[in-house]
Amino acid sequence: MVYPSLHPWIGRVLVWAVVVSPPWLGAEVLEPGINPIVRLARVFNPQLVDLENQIAFSERLVARYAEHSEQALTVGLGYRGCRGDSQAADPCVTLDLGCEMPLDTVILVPAQREIFGDAGIFPKRFTLAVSNRADFEPHTVLYASDQRSYPASLDVPALFKANQSARYVKLTVQEGQHKRARDVFGLSEIVVISKGDPVSFGAKVSVVGAFDLAGIWSPEALTDARTPFGIWHSSSNMKRALGDAVTVTGTDEPLTWTVRLDAPAPLDRIVLFPYQENAPFEVSVFPEVMTIALEADDGAALGSVMEWKNPLPGMNHMTPMVIPLHGKPARSVRVTATRSSAVGDRKLYALSEIEIWSRGKNLADSRVVTRGYGGVLSTVTCLTDGYSSEKKIIPVANWLHQLRERDRIERDLLQMRMVQQQAASNSELNAIWGASMMLGLTFLIPVFFVERRRLITKRRLDQIRKRISADLHDDIGSNLGSLSLIARSAHKQLVKLQGPDEVVADLVEMESIARESSLAMRDIVWLMERQQDSIGDLVQRLRETAGRLLREIPFTLDCESTRMASKLSLEAKRNLFLFVKESIHNILKHARASHVSIRLWDAGSQLVLEVADNGIGIPVNEDAKPVAVRKLESRACLLGGQLQISSSKEAGTRIRLTVKRSLLSTATALS
Q: What are the DSSP calls for 83-116, one per residue?
């Protein structure tokens, strides 16, 4: 193992961090077998561990709350109001609860979306007030908007604490949603809670500024207990019986469900829950036609409370049915179904739960239900077990509170997850770098010594190169200069004395060779100089060399490169310089030119060097190939460039070398 080789305690810490899972390292978040880098990242970031533990706790908490499952209503969507014109009074909705009672909460349930992505019609600015008088003098304001819009969400209800005894609840809208040049607002339901029990179901509703649509939008739909959020049940699936379902094989015969109470009681409401089946697709149904009736203590019928017909035959019913009774006394409740509903290829009479509420208590809880069908009586317990098909039914107030709380926690979770992902990414990156650095130390130390030795050797070679350059310049260059002067002086003396012509010619040649050798020595010294290794330095040296070699031929040297300060490797500098020098020598030998042009310019990531003349071209061999370019080809190969030569007697010769800058600025040029 590498870790302990770094340092004893560092190795132990790393091994302990990536192998052992201490309790404070977020063991409830990190699963066994997780990436060791992830564990290591959390060793040195306790804030990240705390955040992940908080996320895990919130996820467990939110799983206990009721789920938001939007259900599309087709009839009775709720109430919709609008302002007729700018001078009209503010539209309002008033609920009459029937008598004064202590109010806990007033809940406004948003209407469902009309289309996907719709912003909804929840009022922007409004006032919510309660009072014991119909004229609302005096009254208590529960909520009043300022100039800002209420931050409503289509996914959750809006809750307003009351803690006030009142009979009337009034919603006055100062600004709705602007839809098609109308100031429109709407709600699915207004739920008023008193002592934990809903008291607004079936309440009388009066409105100002209604924008009704028969069967779709109406004031009565505000208190029918139907919302786009579905059935008020918990999120847990308890795998109980789906409910009571009877298959009809022939023509529809009436079926009755009867719940008998222990004693007569004033009934507030009856709640029927639809039968739900999830295979092959979710379906939720009531019988197509039902009658709800009450019976007195002596068994005498009190008459029909309500006869219900499905407004849209075959329609799904994803909400419970609430029948308000307003305190009617009864001993038993009878539900009679006279027309079955179709579920797939079956015809069914079916319900999932029956509730009978009196003064905040469900009197039907755990009671035996008597079913009568085809002249046969039987007992049923699954209609009063507290479950709507597979899920437990919870009080309406708790359900609405849980929907809102779940939405709040989910929003917080979204923010925390974003922060956690960023923090985890940063911590894991730091852990990777830290681990890499610690692991790399074992390899970097010998690399450091090798690199240090290489730099020392390079520095020594540079010093030797400088010393050789100085010696060449000072000693050999001086000797060649002296030799040239001696030859010139001897030549002059011999001419005066009228010496042999052969000796005079030899002295002239000796002087020329000494002078050229001295100039070549200067070029060699310049090529070995590291301080003059930019493109600008090369251009200046080429200008001096061309001026010396082309003394009798006019020439131009243009540099159009924008990277004059770019550094050249020693090999690149040497080969470029000698390439131009060799090209000029060829011109002097073969071209008979009257003008020479030398250019350098940029072509993307490449440097282009061109030498052109107006002479008679380069001689060719028997295969029509140009001669005297072997050295140029060799230089181009050493530079890793491309050489192009065009030559003719009419147009002269053009030699172009193209080299990538990456090959010039590094030490990759071949020697």
A: ESSTTSPPPEEEEEEEEEEEEEEEEEEEPPPSST
